[in-house]
Amino acid sequence: MKRIFFITSFIAATATLGAQEPADALRYGWNIQSGTARQQAVGGAMGSLGGDISAAYVNPAGLGFYKTGDFVLTPAYHLGNTKSTYMGRTDEKQKKNFVGLGTSGFVFATGKNTGSGLRAAVFSISANRTANFGSNVVYFGQNNQSSYSQKYLEQIQNDGIKDANVVATNYEYGTSLAFNTYWIDTIGGGTNGNFQFQTRAPIATGLLQRQELIHKGGMTELNLGVAANWNDKWYVGGSLGLSLTSYDRTSIFDEVDATTNTNNKFDFANVTENLSQNGSGILLRAGFIYKPVERVRLGFAVHSPTLLTITDKYNSEITTNTETYQGELSQTSQFLAGEENSIFKYNLLTPYKIMGSVSYVLHEVENVKNQKGFLTADIEYVNYKSSSFMELEADRNNASVVNYLDDLNDAIDNAYKGAFNFRVGGELKFTTIMVRLGAAYYGNPYKNLVGEKGSRFQASGGMGYRNKGFFIDLTYAHTFSKDIHTPYRLQSGFTPLAKIKGNLGNAVLTFGVKI
After folding, report:
1. Sign of torsion, CA 389 393 399 400?
2. Count of domains in the chain?
3. Which of 65, 72, 231, 434 could form a disulfide with 50 if both were Cys (CB 3.0 to 4.6 A apart)?
4. Which CATH number goes with the domain that contains 31?
5. Which domain holds residue 192?
6. pLDDT, tens digit, 9 for 90 and up, residues 449-493
7. 21: number of CA atoms within 13 Å, CB side?
8. DSSP secondary structure string, 223-264?
C-alpha cells in the first residue's frame, strides 16, 4: 500500500515534466457507451443487434444488416450535477449542462445475391462524441490529520534535499512555490546544506480545506466502418477510428486555519493549477455476428487500445498568508520557470475491450417491417490496469522522462484493475411506432486500497417512428455515478478522500433518411 502512496505523491509533486496522474489514464478509458437515440434507449447494447450506424463503435459487424443506405444526425443535450462528501460534510450540488453530438454520418450499402453467398457489402463514415469530461466538483471539510503541504515535504525528503537554495529554485511548479511563500519552511537551528523542513500549517488544531475542480472537454471520434453479410447468417465487420481529445482542468485548493489564533504564523494557503490536454490517436474494432437460428443473434467484438499522442500545458500559483511571520506572499510557476506553461508531449495507451452479446428478435423475418421487437444484452470486459504512458521516440534516451513514465505506469498497475460492464435493452414495435427500454452497469475500476470505489448505472427509455424512408428517435438516458477524488496523496500519514455522486441526464434525438 505504501508503494502506491509513494508513486502518486511523487507524480503529484513532479510537475517539471508534466502534470500527469493515473486518473488521466482512467478518464480516457472509463466511459459510458454513446451513440444514436435508438442505441441509447436500449442501454447501449449494440453488440449483436446491428442495423444502426452506432454499431461501428460497438461491433462493426452490425453494419452488415443494412441493405440500403442511411443519413443520420444525432444532436444531444446533457444535464449534469455532482454532490460531494468530504470529511463527513456534504456540499451543495454543482451543475454543468452542455450540448453534444451522438453518432451522425452516412451508411452506404450494396445489396447483392452472389453465388458465393455475399448478400451485402456496407461502408460507413461517421462522427461521435465518445466521452464528455465536463463537470464541476466542490467539496469542503475540516482536516485535523494532514496538510496539502506535506506532499511537498515528502518530495524534499524522497530526493534527499537539505539545501534551501535547491528547494527554492528546482521545483518550479510546486514545492519551490510553497517554500518561497513560507507554506513550508526550514526548521530553526540548521545550516544551508543541512536543513530540515516543516509545514507552517497547524495540523493539530485543524485546517478547513476546500477543493474546487472545473473540468471541460471530451473525446470525439471520426470513424470509417466496413461490413459484409454472408447468407444472412454470418456478419463480419471492422472499423478504424481517429480519436480527437481536448481536456481542461482548473484545480483550486484552499487550506485555512480552523482557529481564530492570529499568532500561530498561518492564516491560509491557496494553490491554483491549470492543465490543458490536447491530442489525437487511432484505434481498431473488429467483430462478427452469427445467427444459429432465425431469431437468435450472437455477437463478439474486440476493441484495440487507443494510441493517443497528447500535449500537456500546465501552470500553477501558490499564495500563502503567514500572518505576522512573513505576511501574504504569492508566486507563480511562470516567475520561476520563465515561461507561461510547462509543455510535455507523450503517448497514452487506453485499455482494450472484449465484448460478447446475444439478441432475441421477435418474429425474425427478412422483411424488417414484420419484426415485432427484440431483447438484447452485452457483457464487456475492460482491463483498466493495461493503460500505460509511453515516451515519444525523441525521448527514448531521456532517462528522467522514461523513469517518470515508468513510475506512472507502476501507479496505474497498483491503483486499477479489470472490470465488467453489462448492458441490456429491448424494443416493442407497433407498425411504425417503437417503444424501448434499457439499462447499463459499468463496474468498479479501482483496487480499493484506501476506500476508492466507483461505478456507473444508466437507465434509459425512448420512442421511435419509421415510415417511408424516414425515421426519428427520441431517448432520455439518466446516469447515476459514484467516484472518488483525493486532493493529495501522502506516502505516510493521512490521505483524505472525497466521495462524489453524479447525475447526468441525456436527451438524445436522432433524425434519419434512407439514401
Report:
1. negative
2. 1
3. 65
4. 2.40.160.60
5. 2-514
6. 667 889 999 999 999 999 989 999 999 999 999 999 999 989 887
7. 22
8. EEEEEEEETTTEEEEEEEEEEEEEEEEEEEEEEEESS--SSS
